[in-house]
Amino acid sequence: MASPFSIEEIYPDDGRPLRLPRRQAGNSPQGVAVTLLADYTLRARAALPSAAIVALLAEAGVSTAGARTAISRLARRGVLEGSRQGRRSAYRLSRLAAANLAAGGNWIVASTTTAVPWDGRWTIVAFSLPQERSAQRRALRGQLRWLGYAPLYDGLWISPHDLTPKARAHLAELTPGAVTVFRGRQAALDAIGHRAPVDAWDIDVISRHYQAFLRRWTPLLPRVRSGRIDGAAAVRARTEVMDTYRRFPVLDPQLPLELLPQGWPRQRARELFAAVYDGLAAPAERHVRAVVARFADGAQPGIAAHTTADLLAGECGAAPPAP
After folding, report:
1. N or C: at which end does the chain have fewer Cβ atoms within 10 angstroms?
2. Which numeric CATH code is attached to 122-184?
């Protein structure tokens, strides 16, 4: 099912020094490479032989040429760092990439786990940018979408949650003098056809995304729990379930349950994601270790599959580099 938002808005390129690959419809070789390295090397930033990365990507359907091109481009973008292991080349996540990915993983899990009480107020971000500043407008829209906002009207975006000081400062940097932020309750109107703030989100579309996720992954649970998914299949499934689930915090940014239909499937989707992602961690890690061992000179420490609990606890990240 296609996303109701453009990929540029979900994964914005906001001009920061590190540019992680954008998510695309289907499998992006760079995106799959980053997901694989994040899922199994993030905690220790272990370096993997380039041939092992190519072999793992081949199991995900990426050609040898496509895999080598993806690795080269990620290195040029500062996402990967290259080194030599004897006569072999090896790559690992850069410190900045590891820190960003760890923070992103924590955000994905935390934003769908914690129930946030709602005080009935809305945060409104209003902005006005002339037509010739279209790139700046796209960057602002992308950041607002990433922060969980949605457009109620053109140039007026809303969220049920308060804007953090850090996010407020970043938006001010993007559009100095062009943004106004305020927070308040909706005033009841007698006029027919007024638009409720929650209508900024297409609730029916979000629900269909949840239902598609539940239909796709629920039948797999018995095989996950019985250990019947192993090897490359475990790695592929774990990568796919993460790449699919990571969109939900943007699609449904902890919208208050009192504004949503009864039986909202957020919790069921979260529990299903954790069951698949965590349940496949051990067999997927074994397979990654086995593939790397074919191309390495001896043991490869630092390969470890993290769980949703690790992500939530913030135990997977490298510290960001010193300024």
Report:
1. C
2. 3.30.70
Angle between the N-to-C axes of helices 281-293 and 266-279, in degrees from 0 to 180, rounded to the nearest 10? 40
How far apart, in whole angstroms, are the C-alpha atoms of residue 247 and residue 111? 11
How many CB atoms sit inside 10 A of residue 135's CB? 11
Find where tokens 């379930």 sit: 241
Residue type at position 318: A
Question: Whole-angstrom Cα distance, residue 42 to residue 310?
Answer: 11
Whether residue 251 contacts residue 196, with contact meaning beta carbons closer than 8 Å, is answered with no
DSSP 3-state of 60: coil
Cα angle 298, 77, 293 (rounded to 5 degrees) comes to: 15
The domain ranges of the chain are 122-184
* Distance from C-alpha of 239 to C-alpha of 33, rounded to nearest angstrom: 10
Tokens representing 315? 């135990």
- Produce one character per residue of 197-222: b if its CB has 16 or more CB atoms within 10 Å, e if not: bbebbeeeebbebbeebeeebeebee
| Length of the chain, in residues | 323
How does 71-92 read in b/e, with b if 16+ C-beta sit within 10 Å? beebbebebbbeeebeeebbbb
- What is the Cα–Cα distance from 21 to 34, expressed in whole angstroms? 8
DSSP 190-229: -STTPPPGGGGS-HHHHHHHHHHHHHHHGGGHHHHHTT--
CA distance 44 to 203: 40
pLDDT in tens, 128-145: 877 777 788 888 888 888
Q: What is the pTM of this model?
A: 0.83
Which amino acid, residue 113?
T
Q: What's the CA gap between 57 and 37, in Å, rounded?
A: 11
Residue 219 C-alpha from the chain's centroid: 24
Task: Summarize pLDDT for 89-115 with one digit per residue, the tens.
Answer: 999 999 999 998 898 888 889 888 777
What's the one-letter identity of residue 56? L
Q: How far apart are CA 154 and CA 176, in angstroms?
A: 19
Chain position carrying tokens 């990507």: 57
